[in-house]
Design brief:
Blueprint lengths: L9 E4 L11 E4 L7 E4 L3 E4 L7 E5 L4 E7 L13 E6 L2 E6 L5 E3 L1 E10 L4 E4 L7 E6 L3 E11 L8 E9 L2 E6 L10 E9 L3 E4 L10 E3 L2 E10 L10 E7 L2 E5 L4 E3 L2 E2 L3 E4 L3 E3 L12 E3 L2 E11 L2 E7 L4 E4 L1 H7 L5 E2 L3 E4 L5 E2 L7 E3 L7 E10 L5 E6 L4 E5 L27
Antiparallel strand pairs: 1-2, 3-6, 3-9, 4-5, 6-7, 7-8, 10-13, 11-12, 13-14, 14-15, 16-19, 16-22, 17-18, 17-21, 19-20, 20-21, 23-27, 24-27, 25-26, 27-28, 28-29, 30-34, 31-34, 32-33, 34-35, 35-36
Keywords: Signal
Length: 422
């Protein structure tokens, strides 16, 4: 039996501490289950969930919208004994959830010519299990229809497409194929910094033979192609770079795009962390930068967050002045005060209401010793304490977060890719 639907999953987030006994909490993943299916063959409709009252049939290669699954439906038990309630011109009807006769996604009849740039296997039906064994070479083909759906089991969407094409063997299908006309490049004038050797290609497709390898360094960029998000990878971006031998496409795994030159001084009144490139601010690979004034020569923006490239006595480092002053605001003083923790206590990564570390209810009643404190402009004293695996900030006497907080950009990390700061 052909299967097209993957099973879902869930994972547990565990919290532990020498002085904390926290409950285990489950975090469910978002499952992208299709609510539109395309019929591959003539399909019977029924008035009832038990499939005892026939109500006509539906012709193949049409898409129907699911309004309800039967009470026994599950992704782990997907068989023709289960059913879908669908919308029809006769009202809602039931069809069997039979993977032999339907596939997820919407069918669209169309006529287009596309240019394949790689070998493609032909399929008898829009199912991965129906590969014909026939391979066609790169060429132009005529598309007569598509079936497209979100193929991600969970998380961000990932579009999967079957293309019906004309061949000497009749209509066949190709699966998730790259073709020249699919490239939606956007002209830009910027740069990209590479931090590791990167393969280059004639087109933005890794299935082609690479044209060379670009060493670490900065390269001029004339166009980009931003792909849809993929699970765990964010939104990958292809860059068209200008080289002496011509234009080439690269898909770096570690890059910095849109760096701008600048001049002047940058002030770090309480110091901060310096990095080889913009990264997570709590990354362990950093150099402590002492309080002072530094020469700046480059900037890079991650949304509203600006990183600055400065020169220190020993090396050039990227710093985040805005975040540095949030993490260590001016006016921090040493202390050895004892701070009580209760079930109402919450901890924060730094003294800012938006940067919560542990929610209320996380702690057992106890007393901890602070080593620093800071009085906020609102008159609340924040205490810095040593945690089991990190240092935390705690507002005085279980202070409540203000009822309304201004929306702030995420200040904890920088995405080291994309076209931010163009």
């Amino acid at each position: 039996m052909k299967k097209w639907l993957l099973s879902g999953a869930a994972f547990l987030l565990l919290a532990s501490s020498a002085s904390i006994l926290a409950p285990v909490r489950a975090k469910a993943m978002v499952i992208n289950v299709p609510w539109d299916v395309t019929l591959l063959r003539e399909t019977m409709m029924y008035e009832d969930e038990a499939f005892t009252k026939p109500a006509g049939s539906l012709s193949p290669l049409q898409t129907v919208h699911i309004t309800k699954r039967d009470s026994g439906w599950s992704m782990a038990d997907h068989t023709e004994e289960k059913g879908y309630l669908i919308e029809t011109w006769q009202g809602e009807k039931w069809i069997k959830a039979d993977p032999e006769t339907l596939v997820p996604g919407k069918y669209k009849a169309e006529t287009a010519t596309i240019t394949l740039v790689d070998k493609q296997e032909l399929y008898d039906e829009p199912l991965q299990e129906t590969a014909s064994g026939t391979i066609i070479s790169p060429q132009q083909v005529t598309v007569t229809g598509t079936i497209e759906w979100d193929g991600a089991d969970f998380g961000p969407p990932r579009t999967i497409t079957f293309y019906r094409i004309q061949t000497w063997l009749g209509d066949k299908w190709i699966y998730d194929s790259f073709y020249k006309e699919a490239v939606r490049e956007k002209a830009v004038s910027t740069t990209v910094d590479l931090f590791q050797d990167t393969d280059s290609f004639e087109l933005p497709y890794t299935g082609l033979t690479k044209k060379g390898t670009l060493k670490t360094g900065r390269y001029p960029v004339t166009a980009v192609w931003e792909l849809p998000p993929t699970l765990g990878d964010g939104s990958p971006t292809w860059y068209k770079v200008s080289l002496p031998e011509g234009e080439r496409w690269i898909l770096p795994g570690d890059e910095l795009a849109g760096v701008r030159e600048t001049t002047g001084k940058i002030e770090l009144p309480t110091g901060g962390k310096g990095f080889a490139k913009p990264t997570y601010y709590d990354d362990e690979n950093y150099t402590e930068v002492a309080p002072g004034s530094y020469d700046a020569f480059e900037t890079w923006k991650d949304g509203e967050l600006e990183w600055v490239h400065i020169r220190t006595e020993s090396e050039a480092l990227w710093v985040n002045p805005g975040l540095a002053l949030k993490v260590r605001p001016a006016g921090i003083i040493p202390t050895d005060d004892d701070i009580p923790l209760t079930s109402r206590s919450a901890t924060y990564k730094y003294p800012d209401w938006s940067r919560i570390h542990n929610m209320k209810g996380f702690f057992a009643s106890q007393t901890v010793k602070a080593f620093e404190k800071w009085l906020s402009p609102e008159g609340i004293t924040w205490y810095h304490v040593h945690g089991t695996w990190d240092d935390w900030w705690i507002p005085e006497k279980d202070a409540e977060e203000p009822a309304a907080q201004p929306v702030e950009p995420e200040m904890n990390s920088a995405a080291v890719f994309g076209q931010n700061g163009q």
